[in-house]
Amino acid sequence: MAGKKIIYHCYGGAHSSVTAAAIHLGKLKPHIIPSDRELMSLTLFDRQTKDGHGQLHFFGFDRAGNQVYSVGCRNIGSSLENFLQNVSGLLNVEDELHFVDTLHCVNLKMRIGGYISRRLGIIKYGRPLVLEGTQDAYPKLVELVNKVRKEAGA
User: In which element (H, E) is residue 28 found?
Assistant: First the structure.
């Protein structure tokens, strides 16, 4: 299964998908909840804007040579997956794409904090909440990434 393109996606592409990609690539330790500083050091963490929604962001290659990406899909994550799976089928590359929805790992703190920080632009109040929420959700994200890595042979 080497050579897959693993695409983690969520609503805004600023928190859960970015964190999952970092876990996948070993940039965050799976057995230690990351600090605020570690999360803020991640590319795009709480920095993605609505103009970046729908754009694939390449994060790197995993141990098996799979390419790891993230993308913010707003409310069309499953629709986008279906569309891209159909297109990849037409191009005979459907086995190369692996879509991973991280939205089910998102908790209320992440939703509210993300909304305040990213949508309203009140970073001072939203960011601490989204950081705490991401730390709370971290074990679920690690579990998801471990499943994906196993499926992808990474």
Answer: none
Report which of 29, 8, 23 is spatially closest to residue 62, judged by C-alpha positions.
23
pLDDT in tens, 76-92: 656 666 667 666 666 66
For the stretch 25-29, contacts whose Cβ atoms lie closer than 8 Å and that sit 24 or more positions apart, written own/partner, are 25/59, 25/60, 25/61, 25/62, 25/68
Residue where the block lists tokens 């103009």: 51
Q: What letter would DSSP give residue 95?
A: G
Q: Quick one: which H or E segment has residue 87?
A: helix 77-90
pLDDT tens-digit readout, 55-79: 889 999 999 999 999 988 776 656 6
Distance CA 75, CA 113 (A): 18
Q: What are phi and psi of 107, to 5 degrees?
A: -105, 180
Q: What DSSP designation does 33 have? A: P
CA angle 115, 146, 109 (to 5 degrees): 20
- Among candidate residues 6, 1, 18, the one with its CA nearest the CA of residue 106: 18
